[in-house]
């Protein structure tokens, strides 16, 4: 395709998958490897729909890199709706670890048994012999061909080619010559045959084996130090000897034109292994320079640099670091990791050693956070990592600790580094990160006076830089979780914006602060009845990650929080759709992570709001929505949701216990937001008959916290709880007040529930009909049934 055709073909994936395909230069940012993988999947899916049926052949898959195998495993899972046949061949025992797991996943995706290829039978060897040499090949000769090669297809083909070249008649009298001919096709026999072609041809073959791919006569001549005309003669001699051949046009890369390739990988391996070890390493070093000088880039040269013997070479370290940067730019962190690990073996100069470790820690961050922790800790303990890069390393280390479920260590890490610094932007940034990790920690212990210290620090911030904006966001989130006045929360959050928008450097795909901070900002708006602002931010996140190709955890959270916004707004069917997509993506990222809990918790809560109790229970069971709970904050509170689920499922005692635990945990942290942590509201309803005095006290506390927060939703919900504990006209009056508040709220499901409850208490047909219409628009099937049943009962309605 021409560049403009490729751009149109790939659409939004062009800038993401294009660099990995080699058809466009990478941008400044490191793409998310998951996004690159999804972009490549999309590219082949579009090809399969345009030119079908499509057959994709992958031979020698055991030699593929990790990124390719991950893509292959991902693509294999998506074949159900495509006219595509994927045929993968691998040699058993040649690969282990992550690569083997990817290939096992490919095999598991097959809808038919995996076939293990067997050797040729005597009859098959005879058929191949006669097809090659003619039908006059006698049975004894054919039998000896099979015996000599043990039915190995490659050796059989090579042996028959040599029989043709030697013009040997295929009769029993000549069968004894087959063993000597076969020995020359492999191992030492192949090497001896190569040496017979002369020293120049041997050097040419060695150089071709070192290059491996993209073998051109010009590059080989430079590596083997041959004159062009001598190199051309050697190439022809090796072609005649069936060691090299012209490449298959369908298998060559447009970015690496090739004149030659080895007839078979086994020949290439035999030739490569015949090169003396010291010479082989030296030739790789020369090859790296030749490949770089040819304009193929540091990443193409890296495979040679990895083979060079460590020798305290400063330039080699620089080249490997440059290759790692190129790999990261196309979404290949595993390849970058290999380059940087090899750079450490050189080793680097003392002044750059810590920087190489930092870059290695960054390369492994998305794929192996535990490994990142070790690299960054070592880097920070060495001289050379100073200024903003040291601060970056500390924050990246704290993020890795967080992802590795070492929350307290993450907090201590940034706290200790902040204490070392003088007041200024760097220290403020670290303090903000410390407050952020403490703010999302779900444990029941908090550092004394944290909220007060955060409030004092945020009070000095005007939002002049991103560190101050981060502190304002953190203060707003903390105040929201504590149930402070909503207007004040919104005022603090608004100060963190620039003209109502996210500041440059503080966007969803900016790496300096991470996604957690912006989710706190949007959640603060969501739980202060500013759903328009929350929805705008969540939708912006989803669009940003789709456009940038950021998959994995980022996309999981984006879909989950879009679902949360739909749930708060009362669009329950849309919420369920977003949350199911979030959970589908979360399954690929990994169970047990905070983002998995976020998707599951919100889906269970949404299904309960819809009245689908059995489905909510099945979802909770299937996805492990049971204690122990994650170490990070999840919105809404998972204990409260679990308690509500148990009550709905008729497990009242267990539900009450869970809600009591939720209320206790929230109180220990000072979290008194009555909508986020609704345990007290549900507990009051559950205890109405068993312990009415305690239920009444809980209802009073809920209303007090709601009035302190001051949102229509919180006050309306508190009035619904109070109404549920009363009877007669007092219950009717409280229900009417709840309707008034919730009618002004942006949360339509809660309004529908209040309208139906009031209609039942007041026996009001208009209110029941209005509640029924609202419930239908929300997709709240349980409310619909309740309203319809009350209307159909009819007795006493007005």
UniProtKB/TrEMBL annotation:
GO MF term list: adenylate cyclase activity; ATP binding
GO cellular component terms attached to this protein's record: cytoplasm
Name of the protein in question: Uncharacterized protein
Keywords per UniProt: ATP-binding, Nucleotide-binding
SMART domains according to UniProt: TPR
């Amino acid at each position: 395709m021409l560049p403009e055709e490729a751009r149109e073909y790939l659409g939004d994936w062009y800038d993401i998958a294009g660099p990995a395909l080699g058809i466009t230069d990478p941008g400044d940012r490191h793409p998310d490897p998951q996004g690159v993988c999804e972009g490549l999947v999309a590219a082949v899916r579009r090809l399969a729909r345009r030119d079908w049926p499509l057959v994709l052949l992958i031979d020698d898959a055991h030699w593929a890199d990790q990124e390719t195998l991950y893509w292959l495993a991902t693509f294999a899972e998506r074949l159900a709706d495509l006219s595509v046949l994927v045929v993968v061949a691998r040699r058993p025992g040649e690969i282990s670890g992550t690569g083997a797991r990817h290939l096992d996943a490919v095999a598991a995706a097959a809808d038919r048994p995996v076939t293990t290829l067997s050797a040729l039978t005597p009859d098959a060897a005879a058929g191949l012999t006669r097809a090659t040499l003619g039908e006059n090949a006698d049975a004894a000769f054919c039998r000896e061909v099979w015996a000599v090669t043990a039915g190995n297809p490659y050796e059989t083909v090579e042996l028959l080619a040599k029989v043709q070249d030697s013009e040997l008649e295929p009769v029993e009298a000549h069968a004894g010559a087959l063993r000597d001919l076969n020995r020359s096709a492999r191992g030492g026999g192949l090497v001896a045959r190569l040496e017979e072609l002369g020293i120049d041809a041997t050097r040419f073959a060695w150089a071709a084996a070192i290059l491996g791919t993209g073998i051109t006569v010009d590059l080989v001549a430079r590596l083997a130090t041959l004159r062009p005309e001598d190199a051309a003669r050697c190439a022809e001699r090796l072609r005649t000897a069936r060691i090299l051949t012209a490449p298959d046009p369908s298998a060559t890369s447009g970015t690496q034109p090739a004149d030659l390739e080895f007839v078979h990988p086994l020949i290439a391996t035999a030739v490569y292994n015949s090169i003396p070890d010291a010479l082989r390493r030296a030739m790789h070093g020369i090859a790296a320079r030749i490949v770089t000088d040819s304009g193929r880039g540091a990443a193409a040269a890296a495979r040679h640099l990895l083979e060079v013997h460590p020798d305290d070479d400063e330039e080699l370290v620089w080249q490997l670091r440059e290759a790692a940067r190129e790999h990261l730019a196309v979404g290949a962190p595993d390849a970058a990791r290999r380059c940087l690990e090899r750079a450490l073996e050189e080793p680097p100069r003392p002044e750059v050693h810590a920087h190489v470790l930092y870059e290695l820690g960054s390369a492994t961050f998305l794929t192996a956070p535990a490994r990142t922790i070790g690299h960054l800790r070592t880097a920070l303990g060495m001289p050379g990592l100073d200024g903003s890069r040291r601060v970056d390393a500390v924050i990246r280390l704290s993020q890795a600790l967080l992802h590795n479920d070492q929350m307290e260590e993450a907090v201590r890490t940034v706290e200790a580094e902040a204490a070392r610094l003088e007041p200024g932007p760097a220290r403020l940034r670290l303090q903000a990160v410390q407050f952020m990790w403490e703010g999302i920690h779900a444990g029941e212990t908090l550092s004394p006076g944290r909220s007060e210290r955060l409030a004092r620090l945020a009070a000095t911030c005007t939002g002049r830089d991103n560190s101050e904006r981060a502190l304002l966001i953190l203060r707003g989130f903390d105040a929201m979780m504590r149930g402070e006045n909503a207007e004040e929360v919104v005022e603090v959050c608004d100060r963190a914006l620039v003209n109502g928008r996210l500041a440059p450097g503080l966007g969803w795909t900016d790496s300096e602060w991470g996604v957690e901070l912006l989710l706190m900002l949007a959640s603060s708006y969501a739980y202060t009845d500013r759903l328009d602002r929350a929805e705008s931010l969540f939708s912006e996140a989803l669009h940003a990650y789709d456009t940038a190709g950021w998959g994995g955890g980022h996309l999981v959270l984006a879909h989950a929080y879009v679902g949360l916004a739909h749930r708060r707004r009362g669009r329950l069917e849309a919420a369920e759709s977003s949350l199911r997509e979030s959970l589908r993506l979360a399954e690929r990222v990994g169970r047990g992570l905070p983002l998995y809990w976020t998707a599951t918790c919100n889906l269970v809560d949404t299904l309960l709001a819809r009245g689908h109790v059995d489905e909510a229970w099945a979802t909770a069971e299937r996805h492990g929505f049971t204690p122990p709970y994650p170490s990070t904050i999840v919105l809404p509170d998972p204990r409260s949701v679990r308690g509500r689920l148990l009550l709905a499922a008729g497990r009242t005692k267990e539900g009450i216990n869970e809600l009591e635990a939720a209320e206790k945990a929230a109180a220990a942290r000072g979290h008194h937001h009555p909508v986020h942590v609704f345990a007290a509201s549900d507990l009051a309803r559950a205890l109405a008959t068993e312990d009415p005095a305690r239920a009444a006290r809980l209802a009073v506390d809920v209303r007090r916290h709601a009035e302190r927060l001051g949102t229509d939703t919180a006050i309306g919900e508190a009035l619904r709880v109070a109404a549920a504990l009363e009877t007669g006209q007092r219950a009717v009056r409280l229900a009417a007040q709840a309707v008034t508040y919730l009618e002004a709220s942006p949360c339509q499901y809660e309004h529908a529930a209040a309208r139906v409850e009031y209609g039942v208490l007041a026996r009001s047909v208009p209110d029941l009909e209005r509640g029924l219409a609202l419930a239908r628009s929300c997709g709240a099937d349980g409310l619909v049934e309740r309203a319809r049943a009350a209307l159909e009962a009819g007795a006493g309605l007005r």
